[in-house]
Amino acid sequence: MTPSTMLLVLSTLVAAAAPQDHSTRTSGGPTLRPLWERQLGVARGASLRTCRAVGPRVLVVDAAGGVTALDPASGAIQWFVQAPGPVTAFLPSDGGAIATASGTDVLAIDGATGRRVFQVQSASAPAYSPCSDGRLLYVPALLGDMLVAWDMSTGTRAWECHMPAHFAGPATVTGSQGTGSVLVPTADGLLRAVPAQLGVPERERWTQRVGTILGAPLVVGQLILVASSDRAVIALDAPSGVVKWKHFTGAPVRSPPVVVGERVVVRTSESLVALDLATGASAWEQPESALPLGEVGGELLVRAPRGGCEWREIATGRLITGGLPAGSIAASGMLVELSSGAIAGWKRSEH
Fold it and tell me: Do 52 and 327 meet the contact criterion of CB atoms below 8 Å apart?
């Protein structure tokens, strides 16, 4: 069955169904309400494994290796792609092409249309998720600690670059084509910026010692944000790698940073901490060690340590609403809830 046929089948089976109106309203403030629901797991005959926000869409991966792109505002299906097998590496970037891995198969998908722009069987499984700038596909190969760049227009290997230390996290692309970099965390505590170019890079654009980082580097405009094992949150200048600010948290950091408005939020072993994006100065701290997930309706969504999710004021950290579904993420200002058989979108609502 072709992807277009599968998309037609899915669209027919999962026509819009308004979810039951059950509000999480708290007295005197905003609330979150379910807006749409899609029975994707039922339609596919496979349980839904995970979902991620990638640019202006949500990608849903099922147990059969299907990847479905949804509009988080409406739940409309944008496209569907069948991977060669179960998706094993899934921390996708959206630099014009979304890269995922299934064993030794690496697949690049056009984010807007779902068209397969490139597929290659690597000599070894990726050490971490691949990434792409829309022109080149960058694969951190487990064998030999090689960063391998594939030219997607010709289907040929453009170059490979040996890393002096093992990969220690997902790679991320930053900057525009021709002047951008592939950010590669390595086990020696360095973040390396390898030129994202067609020609073989002669040297790294810059390196910066950041310690072991949690998750992938977060690129926000000209800033690169990392949460470090050195009990710090660090902001780097993307073109140069110069440290713009560094905030020591005291307690060990337990999550990658998320940005909501002008705040950077991380979890430590003791608390939830919000910093000023421009300066790194402390904005507020809440004693519960909740996991920040992202922005929903202009406020902060977190996963609570006791289970479930909570919606908090980004200005103060004050609780707005608790008891939200545990399988929730933040995507384009919406709360997106995932279960084994369905996915649903929640939206901010005012009294």
Answer: no
Give the residues across from 319 on adjacent strands: 312
**C-alpha triplet 1, 152, 113: angle, nearest 5°:** 45
Write the single-letter amino acid at 337. Answer: E
**Confidence (pTM):** 0.86
**Phi and psi angles of residue 216, each rounded to the nearest 5 degrees, phi first:** -100, 155
Alpha-carbon separation of residue 81 from 7, 95, 205, 230, 286 (angstroms): 9, 18, 35, 40, 42
Report which of 288, 290, 294 is spatially closest to residue 336, judged by C-alpha positions. Answer: 294
Give alpha helix (H) positions in the chain: 3-13, 40-44
Q: Phi and psi for 7 in degrees, rounded to 5? A: -60, -40
* Calpha distance 278→299 (Å, rounded): 19
Q: State the Cα–Cα distance between residues 272 and 253, nearest whole angstrom.
A: 10
Long-range pairs for 98-103: beta carbons < 8 A, 24 or more residues apart: 98/54, 98/59, 98/132, 99/129, 99/130, 99/131, 99/132, 99/137, 99/138, 100/67, 100/129, 100/130, 101/125, 101/126, 101/129, 101/130, 101/139, 102/65
pLDDT in tens, the chain (351 residues): 444 444 333 343 333 333 433 334 445 679 999 999 999 988 888 999 999 998 899 999 999 989 999 999 999 999 999 988 888 766 666 667 788 888 778 888 888 899 888 888 776 667 787 888 888 888 888 788 999 998 988 888 999 999 999 999 888 998 876 678 999 999 999 999 999 999 999 999 999 999 999 988 999 999 999 999 889 999 999 999 999 999 999 999 999 999 999 999 999 999 999 999 999 999 999 998 899 999 999 999 999 988 899 999 999 999 999 999 999 999 999 999 999 899 999 999 886
Strand partners, 246: 234
Distance between CA atoms of 294 and 91, rounded to whole angstroms? 16
Cα(194)–Cα(201) distance, integer angstroms: 7
CA atoms of 87 and 64, how far apart (whole Å): 8
